[in-house]
Amino acid sequence: MAERMMRQMYIGGSAAPKPVLQPERRERSSRRTHTTLHSRYVRRVNARNFLYTLTVIGVVGVIFAFCVSYLRTRAAMQANEAQIASLQAQLSSLTSENDDEAMKLSADVDYQEIYRVATEELGMTYPTGGQVVEYSAGDSEYVEQYSDVPTSK
């Protein structure tokens, strides 16, 4: 038991000093210091692991939020594309119907009847050379009349 309490070191050679006996108290003190240092190290490592875990969870959360946002945007875009395709088909059919109605209306116009009513019933005639007065519109194609048109040039 006394040997247990004392720590001995082996030193080789002929001039070896006698072993120094150290009391048990010092061993406990160094063990306490070692245990205290080890526990501080463990706490420091655990704190770093906790911060690392929080950082990883935060990054994963941000990536998840971006993915959800992307999927929502993509779904909305696909819905808009489907709606655009539907509206384009509707526009195409309405344009076709409009063209058909315009063709029917232009086919129903009887230009001979219009000419007959204008010349016989309303007394209209084509203008002669002196009745046509031309004005230059300048830069625009629009002309406003502020007074009566002169009868002679």
Describe the structure.
- With 153 residues, this protein is mainly α.
- It has a domain at 24-94.
- Helices cover 65% and strands 0% of the residues.
- It has 3 helices and no strands.
- Mean pLDDT is 81; it is low at 1-5.
Which labels suit this protein?
153 residues; mainly alpha; 3 helices; disordered N terminus
Strand proportion, as a percent range, falls in: under 5%
Helicity level, as a percent range? 55-70%
Looking at the structure, what is the overall shape?
rod-shaped
Question: What is the average per-residue confidence, as pLDDT, rounded to a whole number?
Answer: 81
Number of helical stretches of at least 4 residues = 3
Class computed from helices, strands and strand pairing: mainly alpha
Largest sheet: none
Query: How large is the radius of gyration?
Result: 53 Å
Order of helices and strands: HHH
Could you give the distance between the termini? 145 Å
Number of strands: 0
Q: Which regions have little confidence, pLDDT < 50, spanning 5+ residues?
A: 1-5
